């Protein structure tokens, strides 16, 4: 499992030296990476069907419980097959779609990184490892959404998606750490055994909030859904992969994975049911007002994600079964429709369904694929979508409470809108008379239309043999979510019952809505009237207000004067220190300790005070610099007296170097200020006296406080034993605090790369000029 995750990352690195070759005929090798991964997991299907659960652990930071833990069960197997299988189709499709792009190699490198990150998310059995891959999906998707970097809209969409999903990731991190703190483990499979402890913990509501915020932002749920329609600025292979089958399903996977860990409670179920219900109906209705094929698919995707969350919120056995089925149903037909949209856009240079018609006459294989996907989306009998839709209605009707009729009506209304939306994309552009301006449109290369056709046919095959498909892919995934045997058995015919009647009614009503619905400028203008109260507008305004406040604060605090910066820092420190001194109680001074002062210490202090007086009163800058160095040397002598020669040598070196630097720049500084306004002098005196007094009080409190020697004793005893070093201070910096040093080095390295990039960019600009 680890190797399949790393394979994509390694392959992406090969684009650096071999990118030029992979732009040529050798690009045929690119789809082999996801194809190999798909074949690997296909070979593991029989074992998973038999109930096996494969685990792999590679030690990473075992001291804090962070290891490369991977686990393959029914749920992760289903997602791994979707990620790699549909990924193979997308890579084949993208190879033709992106042909001729300047950054062809860079595009597929990013796509491989994303694929590996998604595999890491669904295979990780450690919450911290899961979070690392979770954030890698956000970062790699940022580069993919903003791939057309010359477009301002593309850049804005990428930033918006990163901001929303990144914010959710922060909440998720807090939730994962909190979950590990409650259970005492970061391993997901072990957390299941502590479910009672989790749901009964006082911080359980907070835990649910953090985890669900991470899931809702990732899967574009209301009110965070607005980033997904904006992300349609990405190249179509990105939309087909990220926004139908993989990234947006990461939040669904998270909720499904943690349902056995922290689900089954009212707060969990109602949160998912309410947010999922709002999302699925809101987005389904919105899709009817769009004219851009990608816009329609974006909102119908959001609706489909809402359906999955809604079903997880129901939490019953009858609801978990359609979750496992609809995950695959949705991935198949939505990836197909996205690829069809890309083909139409690629050949006609438009995605506007008002302008598109009659394309079946010039792109018959594309029409067949689109029709199959649209029919599966509509839930026509003998398609895989029909199985999924029936199961959704069975789930709502099986509820034993008064909400059953209302929730069923909600599901029916949503599916009616989705039937119409599917036909708007899969049927409308291909029926009717071919416009004259599209008469020269031709069928693209097989590399573009074969992948969607295969997925469309697959949806039909799966619908004709649901028993086999359910046994292979859905049973164990449903069991993993439910935490018990769901006894899933899929079949085409259930007899004449209410579920069948609802399915027929949905199909008929959805077709009617499609025929009667006339989206255009007027309908878009109607929806734009409510823009000022939309979640996207409100959240964007909040973000803009935050940026404006940050800009105002920055302009007030950063006025360009170093003396003012120091003053503000010192004043802020005075406030914090004064609060601490006030809250810590009275100060006790051991006056008897003053009797132990030696003549040497008194002499050094007198010299130090004299130098301080010279610094603040002299009108000569050179005298001030020399006096400052005298203060430093006096402190060095005190360190020597108190048996800290190494610290004294460090201080001596720094003071000497600082004095030399000051002297070197003296003559380049402006003239010494002879006088200043009295108010400024008074201000500086008051601030200095307050700061010095507070530090003196704190120093006196430290002297009389009891202190614990456990930490110093630990380092003293273990410096040589564990780190093989005799200098305790060096050992602390290099070994015990090695992570700090490592990240400081990383920061410097990143800064160096940034400087190098800017210099290189400047050099290129100069050459062009």
What does this structure look like?
It contains 32 helices and 2 strands. Helices cover 73% and strands 2% of the residues. A hairpin with a 4-residue loop joins strand 1 (54-61) and strand 2 (66-72). The two termini are 51 Å apart. The protein is mostly helical and 769 residues long.
Number of strands: 2
The shape is elongated
Radius of gyration: 33 Å
Q: If strands are numbered along the chain, what order do they take across the biggest sheet?
A: 1-2
Distance N terminus to C terminus?
51 Å
Main beta-sheet annotation? 2 strands, antiparallel
The residue-averaged pLDDT reads: 88
Q: β content, as a range?
A: under 5%
Computed structural class: mainly alpha
| Model regions low in confidence, pLDDT < 50 over at least 5 residues | none
Share of residues in helices: over 70%
Number of helical segments with 4 or more residues? 32
What's the short story on this structure?
This protein is mostly helical and 769 residues long.
Record the SSE blueprint.
Blueprint: H1 2-13, H2 15-22, H3 32-49, E1 54-61, E2 66-72, H4 74-97, H5 104-123, H6 127-145, H7 152-183, H8 188-191, H9 195-199, H10 204-218, H11 227-230, H12 236-242, H13 247-262, H14 266-287, H15 293-314, H16 317-348, H17 364-378, H18 384-397, H19 404-426, H20 446-464, H21 466-482, H22 498-516, H23 521-528, H24 535-557, H25 562-583, H26 599-617, H27 621-641, H28 645-665, H29 678-704, H30 710-723, H31 728-736, H32 738-768
Antiparallel strand pairs: 1-2
Helix pairs in contact: 1-3, 1-5, 2-5, 3-4, 3-21, 4-5, 4-12, 4-16, 4-20, 4-21, 5-6, 6-7, 7-10, 10-13, 12-16, 13-15, 14-15, 14-19, 15-16, 15-19, 16-17, 16-18, 16-20, 16-21, 17-19, 17-20, 18-19, 18-20, 18-22, 19-22, 25-29, 26-27, 27-28, 30-31, 31-32
């Amino acid at each position: 499992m680890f190797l399949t995750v790393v394979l994509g990352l390694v392959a992406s690195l090969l684009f650096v030296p071999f990118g030029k070759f992979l732009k040529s005929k050798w690009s045929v090798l690119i789809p082999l990476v996801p194809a190999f991964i798909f074949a690997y997991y296909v070979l593991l299907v029989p074992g998973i069907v038999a109930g096996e659960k494969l685990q792999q652990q590679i030690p990473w930071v075992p001291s804090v419980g962070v290891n490369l833990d991977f686990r393959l069960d029914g749920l992760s197997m289903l997602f791994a097959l979707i990620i790699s299988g549909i990924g193979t189709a997308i890579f084949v499709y993208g190879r033709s779609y992106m042909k001729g792009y300047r950054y062809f190699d860079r595009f597929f490198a990013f796509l491989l990184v994303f694929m590996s990150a998604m595999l890491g998310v669904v295979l990780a059995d450690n919450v911290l490892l899961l979070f690392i891959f979770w954030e890698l999906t956000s970062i790699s998707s940022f580069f993919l959404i903003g791939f057309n970097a010359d477009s301002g809209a593309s850049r804005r969409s990428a930033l918006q998606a990163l901001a929303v999903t990144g914010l959710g990731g922060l909440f998720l991190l807090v939730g994962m750490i909190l979950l590990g703190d409650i259970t005492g483990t970061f391993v997901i499979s072990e957390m299941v055994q502590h479910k009672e402890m989790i749901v009964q913990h006082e911080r359980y509501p907070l835990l649910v909030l953090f985890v669900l915020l991470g899931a809702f932002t990732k899967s574009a749920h209301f009110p965070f859904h607005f980033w997904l329609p904006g992300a349609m600025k990405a190249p179509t292979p990105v939309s087909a992969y990220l926004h139908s089958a993989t990234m947006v399903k990461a939040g669904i996977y998270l909720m499904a994975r943690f349902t056995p860990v922290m689900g089954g409670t009212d707060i969990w179920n109602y949160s998912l049911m309410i947010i999922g219900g709002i999302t699925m109906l809101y987005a389904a209705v919105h899709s009817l007002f769009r004219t851009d094929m990608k816009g329609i698919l974006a909102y119908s995707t959001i609706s489909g994600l809402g359906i999955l969350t809604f079903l997880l919120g129901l939490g019953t056995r009858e609801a978990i079964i359609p979750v496992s089925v609809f995950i695959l149903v949705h991935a198949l037909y939505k990836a197909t429709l996205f690829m069809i949209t890309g083909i139409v856009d690629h050949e006609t240079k438009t995605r506007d369904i008002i302008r598109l018609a009659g394309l079946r006459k010039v792109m018959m294989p594309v029409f067949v694929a689109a029709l199959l996907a649209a029919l599966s989306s509509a839930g026509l009998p003998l398609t895989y979508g029909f199985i999924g839709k029936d199961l959704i209605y069975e789930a709502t009707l099986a509820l034993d409470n008064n909400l059953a009729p209302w929730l069923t009506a909600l599901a029916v209304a949503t599916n009616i809108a989705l039937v119409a939306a599917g036909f708007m994309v899969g049927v409308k552009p291909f029926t009717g008379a071919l416009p004259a301006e599209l008469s020269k449109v031709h069928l693209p290369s097989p590399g573009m239309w074969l992948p969607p056709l295969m997925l469309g046919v697959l949806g039909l095959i799966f619908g004709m043999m649901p028993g086999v498909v359910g046994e292979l892919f859905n049973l164990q995934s449903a069991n993993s979510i439910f935490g018990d045997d769901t006894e899933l058995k899929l079949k085409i015919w259930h007899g004449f019952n209410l579920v069948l009647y609802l399915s027929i009614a949905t199909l008929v009503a959805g077709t009617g809505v499609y025929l009667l619905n006339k989206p255009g400028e007027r309908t878009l203008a109607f929806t734009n009237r409510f823009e000022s109260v939309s979640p996207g507008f409100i959240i964007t305004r909040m973000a803009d207000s935050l940026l404006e406040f940050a800009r105002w604060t920055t302009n007030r605090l950063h006025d360009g004067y170093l003396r003012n910066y120091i003053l503000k820092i010192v004043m802020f420190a005075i406030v914090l220190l004064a609060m601490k001194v006030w809250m810590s109680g009275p100060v006790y001074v051991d006056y008897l300790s003053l009797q132990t002062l030696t003549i040497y210490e008194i002499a050094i202090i007198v010299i130090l005070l004299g130098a301080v007086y010279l610094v603040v009163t002299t009108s000569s800058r050179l005298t001030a610099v020399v006096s400052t160095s005298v203060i430093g040397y006096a402190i060095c002598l005190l360190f020597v007296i108190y048996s800290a020669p190494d610290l004294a040598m460090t201080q001596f070196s720094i003071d000497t170097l600082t004095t030399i630097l000051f002297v070197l720049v003296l003559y380049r500084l402006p003239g010494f200020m002879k006088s200043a306004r009295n108010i400024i002098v008074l201000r500086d005196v008051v601030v200095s006296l307050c700061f010095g007094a507070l530090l003196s009080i704190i120093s006196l409190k430290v002297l009389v406080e009891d202190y614990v020697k456990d930490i110093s004793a630990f380092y003293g005893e273990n410096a040589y034993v564990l780190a093989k070093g005799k200098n305790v201070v060096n050992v602390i910096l290099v070994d015990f605090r090695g992570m700090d040093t490592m990240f400081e080095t990383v920061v410097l390295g990143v800064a160096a790369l940034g400087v190098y990039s800017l210099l290189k960019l400047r050099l290129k600009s100069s050459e062009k000029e």
